UniProtKB/TrEMBL annotation:
One of its GO terms (molecular function) is RNA binding. One of its GO terms (cellular component) is nucleus. This is Polypyrimidine tract binding protein 1. The keyword Oxidoreductase does not apply. It comes from Seriola lalandi dorsalis.
Length: 499
């Protein structure tokens, strides 16, 4: 996603969209610290959005809101350290474990409004820097919910049983698709592979993360949640499988690390014998999207709907100086920086598979110190400004960019797509360029080069290991297509290998 309005490079290819105001005024507490008795101190709507704080003010909650539902709003962004429920006022205060987590939460929900049982919920910073709660029955319930749901009680040194989750969707009133599950579960980490099937008359899925921590966080936050109001309940457990082997990319199975796989006319197969029974059953061909949020039973979890033809992404939490253009996960066609929120952009990929690939690999990755937030946009394309109507250069058309990697159908670049890693694969290196030249180039931006190795049989290619994944992402953005002389432009991508 590499994007700078000046440098114009974005890893993806390498507007008043679904923006909702998160700054509408709300009540405030007179004291500097919120506490369990503060409901009597609330005054009128006289406060604006506060400066960044660990404490988040949540308004317009449904009357029957539960503590678990409020906590679940914050869990995708970090541990929740405290909770103050003001049910009589349909409000709550959520304290995150860090200011950064709170900023990510407010930033995300300013672009994708959370919906809880038909109710749009408003999220903004509180004026308070911390919460102090009392021992009232209401607060005891809140603390019990925190202990049950917060990831802070999970010992990070204890490995999760598996990186593969088994998901059963109970009470399937509305259709649930593979893409819908990817969108929901990608909030907790990169989804590498997923398979959906029907077994014992139940719609099920197997879903693989790259690490156990992501699987554990997803299970903790989503188990027992309803995708829609009162139905489509997620029941999640760790699978006995250690890995998924997907052979086809279609509506029943997907390997996001292998976009070159065929669609296949038969059902997806896996080599693990435990899967033979599951796939001897008929896998339902479900419609291509979650029901619209305006339908009865609109999504309870607040995740945007997904359409099979969607190729426009909403990217938020960008550095304001940055703007998408060039990517290792697909070809970026158009980019629009939103006029009133320069840290948000609409990015149109060449097709929906590339959009899903970019979202799956890049959502949550850090760029210039800020974690990217990527969701599917409700728009089906990015409109160019009408002739004679300038938009200050905020909309760019890259459909004819020479940097596109996937122009040719079946391009071999599809087989070289891997999740972001600290090790980069370099190619198209001319004979005159030696190891020290490349190490000096990659360290010139201030990044640390930890290791370097030419391919033994082909010095046109090499591996270079950076100090961190974030440094590798920024280096890819800066040095892909760098002119090395002798009519050689450096090609940079993420590597599955390490040095």
């Amino acid at each position: 996603v590499c994007v700078c309005q000046s440098d114009a490079v974005f890893l993806f290819q390498r507007g008043s969209d679904e923006l909702f105001s998160s700054v509408s005024n709300g009540p405030y507490i007179m004291s500097t610290t919120a506490n369990g008795n503060d409901s009597k101190k609330f005054k009128g709507d006289i406060r604006g959005p506060g400066a960044p704080s660990r404490v988040i003010h949540i308004r317009k909650l449904p009357n029957d809101i539960t503590e678990a539902e409020v906590i679940s709003l914050g869990l995708p962004f970090g541990d929740v350290s405290n909770l103050l429920m003001l049910k009589a006022k349909n409000q709550a205060f959520l304290e995150m474990n860090s200011e950064e987590a709170a900023q990510n939460m407010v930033g995300y929900y300013s672009t994708v409004m959370p919906i809880i049982r038909h109710h749009p919920v408003y999220v903004q910073f509180s004026n308070h820097k911390e919460l102090k709660t009392d021992n009232s029955p209401n607060q005891e319930r809140a603390q019990a919910a925190l202990r049950a749901l917060s990831t802070s009680h999970v010992d990070p040194t204890v490995a999760a049983p598996s990186t593969v989750l088994r998901v059963v969707v109970e009470n399937l009133v509305y259709p649930v698709t593979l893409d819908a599950l990817c969108q929901i579960f990608s909030k907790f980490g990169t989804v590498l592979r997923i398979i959906v099937f029907t077994k014992n008359s139940q719609f099920q899925a197997l879903l693989q993360y790259p690490d156990g921590a992501s699987a554990q966080a997803a299970k903790l936050s989503l188990d027992g949640q309803n995708i829609y109001n009162g139905c489509c309940t997620l029941r999640i457990s760790f699978s006995k499988l250690t890995s998924l082997n997907v052979k086809y990319n279609n509506e029943k199975s997907r390997d996001f690390t292998r976009p070159d796989l065929p669609t296949g006319d038969s059902q997806p197969t896996m080599e693990h014998p435990a899967m033979a029974t599951a796939f001897s059953l008929t896998v339902p061909a479900l419609p291509g999207a979650l029901a619209s949020l305006s339908l009865p039973g609109a999504t309870r979890l607040g995740f945007p709907s997904i359409s099979a033809g969607h190729c426009v992404l909403l990217v938020s939490n960008l550095n304001p100086e940055v703007s998408p253009q060039q990517s290792v996960y697909g070809d970026v066609m158009r980019v629009k920086i939103l006029f009133n929120k320069k840290e948000n952009a609409l990015v149109q990929m060449s097709d929906s598979t590339q959009a899903q690939l970019a979202m799956s690999h890049l959502n949550g990755q850090r760029l210039h110190g800020k974690p990217l937030r990527i969701t599917l946009s409700k728009h089906t394309n990015v409109q160019l400004p009408r002739e004679g109507h300038e938009d200050q250069g905020l909309t760019k058309d890259y459909s004819n960019s020479p940097l596109h990697r996937f122009k040719k159908p079946g391009s071999k670049n599809y087989s070289n797509i891997f999740p972001p890693s600290a090790t980069l694969h370099l190619s198209n290196i001319p004979p005159s360029v030696v190891e020290d030249d490349l190490k000096m180039l990659f360290s010139s931006s201030g990044a640390m080069v930890k290791a370097f190795k030419f391919f033994q049989k082909d010095h046109k290619m090499a591996l270079i290991q950076m100090g961190s994944v974030e440094e590798a992402i920024e280096s890819l953005i800066e040095f892909h297509n760098h002119d090395l002389g002798e009519n050689h432009h450096l090609r940079v991508s993420f590597s599955k290998s390490s040095i």
